[in-house]
């Protein structure tokens, strides 16, 4: 979008046309006591050179070029140059969500490919055109399960990303929904199956489990799904690290898979915008929020794409709305589409294997807090997390997440992440600061 | 067109009463106005429905319409045929494409419903 500044002359002409003598006349209907009098505290204009200089200096305050071992829902992965080359094309970059969808065949094609690849990666039968991010995809999956089962009780593992659980609490707060947390095993870090057995009941709509979980641990989904299904509940499988899908078998026992795609070439960008997705068994498609693009034929019999499902209440029955997403996260989701296309089936597997190998190298050097299997994140026992992170920062390394912020019982434990971007030298430096 | 042994609502549902049970559907007029029906959302078994309150919806290629309960009671049967073949509602709305059966809790509610002749006059005048 262009910014076109107006000259004093143009302002004068516009005011003359509507018969106003000065700009303030336009606000004359507002009571005097609520109007701001005086000048705004905005400095005078700067030259282009001064602006470039200012932002250059502010940009220099960033940790540019630092190594990072911070994961916890946002991951430091390589972004292939092809991603920005495609998403910065005007046809994608400047187009708004297709309201008259079928005119935008290019956008629909890219969304169809997104859905197809996510079905392949998650093993589900249908995937929607994307969600805002993982933190909204997971509560939307919970609401879906409540509509499917007609029940108002949701069980969420404490090892699901703490901020996802906060969004779940926000979604459910005024809907008369009971949210129950299921604890993790203090030794393995995986969900405590025995404890879960005691809280899943016939009123439960969903059991929400994340794998790899917030501690990086890989959950054994099958017995959890069996327990949920025996009680007529759905198993919602959440994920924050999409790269894990390259080596971890998609959970065939899950009913709904909901997660975050930031790892697929979406810049961390201080926390967003990201893109999420919900995939599910086809029998639940009517409860799937968002929209769904399908393949069809045009009047001449050519392959074409259309909006197969878009919740009608988004347009015409708004009082009946069941979800908080109206369209999809088109441009950001396209980054993930290009990423998946660039890496392909084998590339993604190799990428995941690199992540796994590097995390296990560093994990082997440190004292791990949990014994369970892990992907590219793990929890390390530290003497003083803050001291270690400060020492690492001085070496231009961003350390891990001290878990006490979200789990007081895990004081002195740090969540660390290794990706394909982690170098041996930096990993050794981390081990050194841990005193290993 | 409109069977004499049915009762009708102004929202275009019909009801056929047999003892303490009633079969509920939407009228020929309703399906004609909606056009090609692609999806029917019906209440679950055991749901308590109340006269004139929404119990589900019918979606056609051009609109979504609420379905209102013509009488109060408990849902004792749901027509599974419509899950896979919603288009039957266009083909046979007064016959095999009935929606639900309810066990009536207030049979006197028929007083609020229209007879076939009244409904015919109502849609004719609409």
Structural class of chain A comes to: alpha/beta
**CATH architecture label name of chain B:** Beta Barrel
Q: How many runs of DSSP E, i.e. beta strands of chain A? A: 14
Order of helices and strands of chain B: EEEHEEEEEHHEH
What does this structure look like?
The complex is a heterodimer of chains A (436) and B (126). Chain A is an alpha/beta fold and 436 residues long. In chain A, 35% of the residues lie in helices and 15% in strands. Chain A is built from 12 helices and 14 strands. A 7-stranded mixed β-sheet of chain A has the order 2-8-7-6-5-3-4, with helices on both faces. Chain A has a 3-stranded antiparallel β-sheet with strand order 11-14-13, with no helix packed on it. Chain A has a two-stranded parallel sheet with strand order 1-12. The model of chain A has no long low-confidence stretch (mean pLDDT 93). Chain B is α+β, with helices and mostly antiparallel strands and 126 residues long. Chain B has one domain (7-108): RNA polymerase II/Efflux pump adaptor protein, barrel-sandwich hybrid domain (OB fold (Dihydrolipoamide Acetyltransferase, E2P)), CATH 2.40.50.100. Helix content of chain B is 20%, strand content 35%. Chain B is built from 4 helices and 9 strands; from the N terminus they run βββαβββββααβα. In chain B, the strands form 2 sheets. In chain B, strands 1-2-3-9-8-5 form a 6-stranded antiparallel β-sheet. The radius of gyration of chain B is 13 Å and the shape is globular. The two termini of chain B are 16 Å apart. At the A-B interface, loops of A face loops of B.
């Amino acid at each position: 979008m262009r910014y076109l500044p107006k000259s004093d002359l143009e302002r004068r002409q516009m005011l003359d046309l509507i018969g106003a003598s000065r700009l303030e006349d336009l606000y004359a209907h507002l009571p005097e006591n609520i109007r701001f009098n005086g000048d705004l505290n905005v400095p005078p204009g700067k030259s282009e050179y001064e602006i470039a200089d200012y932002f250059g200096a502010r940009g220099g305050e960033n940790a540019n070029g630092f190594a990072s071992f911070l994961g916890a829902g946002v991951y430091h992965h390589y972004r292939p140059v092809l991603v920005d080359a495609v998403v910065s094309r005007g046809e994608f970059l400047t187009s708004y969500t297709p309201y008259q969808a079928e005119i935008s065949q290019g956008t629909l094609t890219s969304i169809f490919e997104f859905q197809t690849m996510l079905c392949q990666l998650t093993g589900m039968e249908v995937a929607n055109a994307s969600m805002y991010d993982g933190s909204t995809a997971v509560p939307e999956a919970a609401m879906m399960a409540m509509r499917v089962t007609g029940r108002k009780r949701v069980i969420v593992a404490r090892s699901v990303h703490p901020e996802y659980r906060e969004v779940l609490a926000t979604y459910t707060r005024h809907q008369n929904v009971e949210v129950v947390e299921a604890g993790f095993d203090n030794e393995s870090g995986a969900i405590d199956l025995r404890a879960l057995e005691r809280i899943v009941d016939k009123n439960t709509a969903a059991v929400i489990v994340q794998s790899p979980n917030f501690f990086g641990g890989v959950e054994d989904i099958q017995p959890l799904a069996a327990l949920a299904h025996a009680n007529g509940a759905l198993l919602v499988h959440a994920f924050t690290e999409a790269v894990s899908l390259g080596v971890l078998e998609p959970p065939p026992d899950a009913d709904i898979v909901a997660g975050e795609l930031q790892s697929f070439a979406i810049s961390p960008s201080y926390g967003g915008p990201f893109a999420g997705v919900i995939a599910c068994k086809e029998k639940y498609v009517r409860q799937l929020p968002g929209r769904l693009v399908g393949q069809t034929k045009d009047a001449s019999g050519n392959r074409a794409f259309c909006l197969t499902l878009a919740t009608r209440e988004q347009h015409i029955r708004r009082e009946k709305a069941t979800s908080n997403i109206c369209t999809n996260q088109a441009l950001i989701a396209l980054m993930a589409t290009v990423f998946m296309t660039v890496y392909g089936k084998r590339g993604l597997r190799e990428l995941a294997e690199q992540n796994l190998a590097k995390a296990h190298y560093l994990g082997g050097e440190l004292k791990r807090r949990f014994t369970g299997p892990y992907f590219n994140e793990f929890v390390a026992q530290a003497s003083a997390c803050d001291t270690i992170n400060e020492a690492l920062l001085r070496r231009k390394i961003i350390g891990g997440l001290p878990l006490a912020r979200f789990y007081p019982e895990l004081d002195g434990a740090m969540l660390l992440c290794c990706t394909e971007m982690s170098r041996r030298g930096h990993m050794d430096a981390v081990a050194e600061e841990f005193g290993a | 067109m409109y069977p004499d042994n049915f009762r009708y609502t102004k929202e275009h549902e019909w009801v056929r009463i047999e003892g303490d049970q009633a079969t509920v559907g939407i009228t020929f007029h309703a399906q004609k106005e909606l056009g090609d029906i692609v999806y029917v959302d019906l209440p679950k078994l055991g749901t308590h429905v109340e006269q004139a309150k929404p119990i589900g919806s019918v979606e056609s290629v051009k609109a979504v319409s609420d379905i209102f309960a013509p009488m109060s009671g408990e849902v004792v049967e749901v027509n599974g045929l419509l899950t896979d073949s919603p288009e039957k509602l266009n083909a046979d709305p007064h016959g095999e494409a009935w929606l639900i059966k309810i066990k009536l809790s207030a049979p006197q509610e028929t007083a609020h419903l229209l007879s076939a002749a009244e409904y015919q006059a109502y849609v004719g005048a609409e």
